[in-house]
């Protein structure tokens, strides 16, 4: 059972925030998340870090400006997830705003695999581009860049993934995580890196006199896409990323979202005028990702590039249909995986590896995430890659294990077992030779046992402690709902002991409750867990604004519970 811990809150920081004018509840929450001054949560555009601090960004701007002035063709090589799709759309839209001739090419997950491969370069060469620009990929494309160089096509790499042992021989690399880059935020998503390249390009064009007689393009138009990609890629929301997200949400709420983003809200049944981080991460992001998982991400990119609202709505509807298919495939795979793992005992293993030949390669990442959540073990799921002798794997980790570092260690200990790999601390992808999944599973278990603290396997839920009874309100819940939370800056969770006054199953899979604390009764929901609770519980919960039949009320959303003493 996971332990419940209260997040430390430095009293001096809390007092300073209260003295600066923040309400006590907010001062407490922000201080516990490392905020020391209200400016850190003001999220004003001038607070964004300058592009000047990013290694090679001026060189990239000059390269792009030269291409624009020479009327040459730029071709963006995108990735097939939400970050790659939004980065591509930001690149195409932004470069066109700045006067470029630009098109894009996105690999198909099943046919081409990930990134700037030699095959993708040869496919791109047929379009006769003068410069290839990668977005959300390229830092590991040593062979792909070499192929482009051999064909006489220079490559500008924009990426955010961790580099391998060798960098590609590109004309220019912009990546805050490359060696020697001192940029203040290492957590930009791929779409954020592309946005910063555009900021630098506009400054370069300004310096060359491009806007002496015409207004400068307003790159704020791209911030809704930047926010969507940043949240959907689950990168750490440091202060810089939170500002990008907040500014994008502000555009959506003001009715200035692009036609494609607006259409995605509509098909998800959400109101863009009340856009939240939840909407981006759990409603829009999955619909956009569904194209790359089930079909072709070009559909998602075209939706984000559409200016005609009727066209955008039609494309968004297709994405919604694909997302429904994705959920069905995911559900079937999860049921099959749980059947295979019926005898799996987490006490006997510190990792989890699963493989079935019939599993859909586009959904293994989601399946890995579901299994990781259920068993709280670093998890890698494999699927067959039709047409070759490789298995494609997708992994998800838990706090305490850096997944990419674990794969790197396996690669060093077992040469040839991993064909290629890449990723981050919490998520990674890899390929292994077909038929060697059992060997990989044993190697993964051995490495995890050596790297992880056994205490991390029990799980830990960090909360903000108890919330005063009089602070429970619909207004505060709505404020929480509209604030900027995410990876590394978690949404508020509270803990308290309640009496369970009433409970009943609704919708066949949810538990609706009435909970009492200090003679005050609260409505509560336990989603996707219909099993009854005992009469007295210690609960971890969030405040949730509830609207039904025009009535607004507060609900508690239960995340976890354990029996409390009667």
Descriptive overview:
There is one protein chain. This protein is α/β, with parallel strands linked by helices and 566 residues long. It has three domains: 46-320, inorganic pyrophosphatase (n-terminal core), CATH 3.90.1640.30; 341-458, Diaminopimelate Epimerase, Chain A, domain 1; 461-566, OB fold (Dihydrolipoamide Acetyltransferase, E2P), CATH 2.40.50. It has helices at 11-19, 24-32, 57-69, 82-97, 118-125, 142-150, 190-207, 223-232, 239-253, 259-267, 277-294, 298-305, 309-340, 364-375, 403-413, 437-451, 474-482; strands at residues 3-6, 73-77, 101-105, 131-135, 155-158, 172-174, 352-355, 379-384, 390-396, 420-423, 427-433, 460-463, 494-506, 510-517, 520-526, 536-548, 551-563. The strands form four sheets. A five-stranded parallel β-sheet has the order 3-2-4-5-6. A five-stranded mixed β-sheet has the order 7-8-9-11-10, sandwiched between helices. A five-stranded mixed β-barrel has the order 13-14-15-17-16. The model has no long low-confidence stretch (mean pLDDT 94).
Q: In terms of topology, how is this protein built?
A:
Elements: E1 3-6, H1 11-19, H2 24-32, H3 57-69, E2 73-77, H4 82-97, E3 101-105, H5 118-125, E4 131-135, H6 142-150, E5 155-158, E6 172-174, H7 190-207, H8 223-232, H9 239-253, H10 259-267, H11 277-294, H12 298-305, H13 309-340, E7 352-355, H14 364-375, E8 379-384, E9 390-396, H15 403-413, E10 420-423, E11 427-433, H16 437-451, E12 460-463, H17 474-482, E13 494-506, E14 510-517, E15 520-526, E16 536-548, E17 551-563
Parallel strand pairs: 1-12, 2-3, 2-4, 4-5, 5-6, 7-8, 15-17
Antiparallel strand pairs: 8-9, 9-11, 10-11, 13-14, 13-16, 14-15, 16-17
Helix pairs in contact: 1-2, 3-7, 4-7, 4-8, 4-12, 5-6, 7-8, 8-9, 8-11, 10-12, 10-13, 11-13, 12-13, 13-14, 15-16
């Amino acid at each position: 059972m996971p332990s419940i811990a209260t997040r430390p809150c430095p009293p001096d920081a809390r007092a300073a925030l209260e003295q600066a004018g923040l309400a006590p509840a907010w001062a407490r929450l922000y201080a516990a998340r490392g905020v020391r001054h209200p400016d850190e949560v003001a999220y004003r555009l001038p607070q964004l870090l300058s592009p000047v601090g990013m290694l090679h960004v001026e060189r990239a701007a000059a390269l792009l400006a030269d291409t624009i002035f020479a009327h040459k063709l730029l071709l963006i090589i995108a990735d097939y997830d939400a970050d790659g799709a939004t980065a591509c759309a930001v690149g195409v839209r932004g470069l066109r705003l700045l006067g470029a001739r630009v098109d894009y090419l996105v690999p198909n997950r099943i046919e081409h695999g990930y990134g700037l491969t030699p095959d993708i370069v040869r496919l791109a060469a047929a379009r006769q581009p003068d410069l290839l620009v990668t977005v959300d990929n390229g830092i590991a494309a040593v062979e792909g860049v070499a192929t482009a160089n051999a064909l006489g096509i220079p490559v500008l790499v924009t990426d955010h993934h961790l580099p391998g042992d060798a960098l590609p021989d590109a004309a220019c690399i912009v990546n805050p995580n490359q060696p020697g880059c001192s940029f203040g935020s290492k957590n930009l998503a791929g779409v954020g890196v592309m946005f910063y390249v555009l900021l630098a390009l506009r400054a370069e064009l300004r310096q060359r006199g491009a806007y002496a007689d015409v207004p400068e393009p307003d790159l704020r138009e791209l911030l809704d896409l930047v926010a969507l990609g940043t949240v959907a890629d689950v990168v750490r929301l440091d202060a810089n990323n939170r500002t990008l997200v907040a500014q994008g949400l502000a555009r959506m709420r003001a009715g200035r979202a692009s036609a494609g983003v607006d259409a995605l809200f509509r098909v998800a049944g959400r109101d863009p005028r009340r856009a939240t981080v939840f909407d981006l991460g759990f409603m829009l992001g999955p619909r956009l990702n569904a194209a790359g998982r089930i079909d072709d991400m070009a559909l998602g990119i075209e939706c984000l590039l559409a200016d005609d609202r009727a066209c955008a709505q039609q494309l968004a509807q297709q994405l919604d249909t694909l997302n429904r298919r994705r959920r069905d495939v995911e559900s079937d795979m999860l049921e099959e995986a749980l059947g295979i793992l019926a005898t799996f005992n987490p006490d006997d293993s510190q990792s989890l590896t699963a493989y079935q030949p019939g599993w859909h390669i586009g959904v293994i990442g989601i399946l890995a995430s579901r299994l990781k959540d259920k068993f709280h073990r670093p998890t890698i799921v494999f699927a067959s890659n039709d047409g070759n002798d490789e298995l494609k794997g997708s992994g998800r980790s838990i706090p305490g294990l850096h997944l990419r570092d674990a794969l790197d260690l396996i690669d060093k200990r077992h040469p040839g077992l991993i064909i290629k790999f890449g990723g981050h601390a919490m998520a990674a992808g890899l390929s292994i030779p077909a038929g060697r999944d059992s060997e990989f599973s044993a190697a993964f278990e051995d490495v995890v046992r050596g790297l992880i603290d056994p205490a991390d396997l029990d799980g830990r839920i960090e909360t903000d402690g108890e919330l005063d009874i009089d602070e429970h309100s619909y207004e505060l819940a709505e404020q929480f709902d509209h604030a900027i939370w995410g990876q590394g800056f978690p949404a508020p969770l509270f803990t308290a002991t309640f009496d369970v006054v009433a409970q009943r199953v609704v919708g066949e899979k949810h538990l609706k409750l009435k909970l009492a604390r200090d003679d005050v009764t609260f409505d509560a929901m336990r989603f996707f867990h219909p099993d009854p609770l005992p009469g007295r519980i210690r609960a971890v919960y969030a405040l949730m604004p509830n609207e039904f039949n025009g009535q607004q009320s507060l609900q508690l959303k239960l995340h976890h519970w354990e029996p409390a003493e009667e």
